[in-house]
Design brief:
There is one protein chain. The protein is an all-alpha fold. The chain is built from eight helices and no strands. It starts with a helix and ends with a helix. About 10% of the residues are buried.
């Protein structure tokens, strides 16, 4: 029991003091939590979907809502898997390349990952804005939207999204009504989109704090390489000094 507590204490201490360990654990938690949620989106959407362009008895208010879940869950999962592959490939290239020094390889890995992360974040934000409008508008209802945005502002915003559908005030009890939507389908979409915005804001904050501020502004991108090189140089100088002393002693003898 004491040995287990000691191991747990060491792991916690490493998590609090080692940035690389925090990075590994953070990415692990993201993928462990993220993939089940994305799988839930795909499964619920697939079970409630109808062929594109046809009426959907599960959600007459928004017939394409199941496809929002399927395309969003599948697309984001694919982007996360590609992110893992890109990270592994760039790490392998950095560790095995011989044409550049370690610092150049570090900057190359960081640059490729940074470009990919920005592209993915932009695509996810565009998808989130569009799908959030298509889902949340039926929860808010047309009257509230007119009172919040005004008729002209609402029409302008809808025109920018290409939205010319009827806005309903969704209900979950009368399947024969045009404003009906399956409760499970709608609430999965509504709750996951709400959580998605929270996760996206946190991810954007971490992205700015770590990659932009910490690594670029504070110039800590390759600090571990610098410290490693410095320690290796110090060890080499100590070994040379020790050998020199031994040679002097042997000469004196």
């Amino acid at each position: 029991m004491g040995f287990q507590c000691s191991n747990c204490g060491k792991k916690l201490e490493g998590f609090l003091t080692d940035r690389e360990q925090r990075k590994v654990w953070g990415m692990g938690i993201l993928y462990v939590v993220g993939f089940p949620i994305l799988t839930l989106m795909v499964v619920v959407g697939a079970l409630k979907a109808s062929p594109p362009g046809e009426d959907n008895p599960n959600c007459p208010a928004e017939p394409n809502m199941p496809w929002f879940l399927v395309t969003g869950g599948g697309g984001i999962a694919f982007l996360l898997l590609v992110r893992i592959v890109v990270n592994k490939v760039m790490r392998c290239v950095k560790n095995n390349q011989q044409c550049c020094d370690d610092v150049a390889g570090c900057f190359c890995e960081f640059g490729c990952n940074l470009i990919y992360d920005i592209m993915v974040m932009v695509m996810i934000v565009m998808w989130m804005i569009t799908v959030t409008w298509w889902v949340f508008r039926h929860m808010i209802g047309p009257d509230r939207l007119h009172s919040i945005l005004g008729k002209e502002g609402l029409d302008t915003f809808r025109a920018s999204l290409g939205d010319n559908d009827t806005i309903h005030h969704v209900q979950f009890t009368d399947p024969q009504s045009s404003n009906y939507c399956d409760h499970l389908l709608y609430m999965v979409a509504f709750v996951l989109l709400s959580l998605g915005w929270i996760v996206l804001i946190v991810a954007l904050f971490v992205f700015i704090a770590d990659k932009i501020f910490n690594k670029l502004v504070c110039c800590r991108l390759c600090s571990n390489i610098t410290h490693k090189d410095t320690s290796e140089d110090d060890e080499e100088q100590i070994r040379l000094h020790s050998n020199s002393n031994e040679m002097n002693i042997n000469s004196a003898i």
